[in-house]
What we know:
The mean pLDDT is 91. Strands 1-3-2 form a three-stranded mixed β-sheet, covered by helices on one side. Helix 1 packs across helix 2. By secondary structure, it is of the alpha+beta class.
Amino acid sequence: MPGFVLLVRPRGDGDDVRGIGYTVSKKVGNSVTRNRMKRRLRELARAALPDSGIAGADHVLIGRPGGNDIVFAELGDHLDSALKRAAKKLAAKAP
C-alpha cells in the first residue's frame, strides 16, 4: 500500500504554475506522526514537482497510515510513478 494518494486537477486558467497541497488526517496518528508525514510529503513534492509536475494543475498529496514506515527513496519512486500515470490520464482526456 502506498504511503500517500495523489490527486491532480487541471485549473484551466492558462497559468502554468503547479499548485501543491498536503493533508494528513488523524487516522494516520498523533500530531507528531502527522507532522512528520507532512514534512516528508513537502520534501517529496519539492524534489519532484518542478520536473515531473503537471503545469497548470493543482496537486494534492494525502498521507496514508504507514507512510512514515516506507523508505524515503521508495516514496519518491511512488510519487514519480503517480505523476506519470496522472499525466497520461490527463493527456487522454484532453480534446
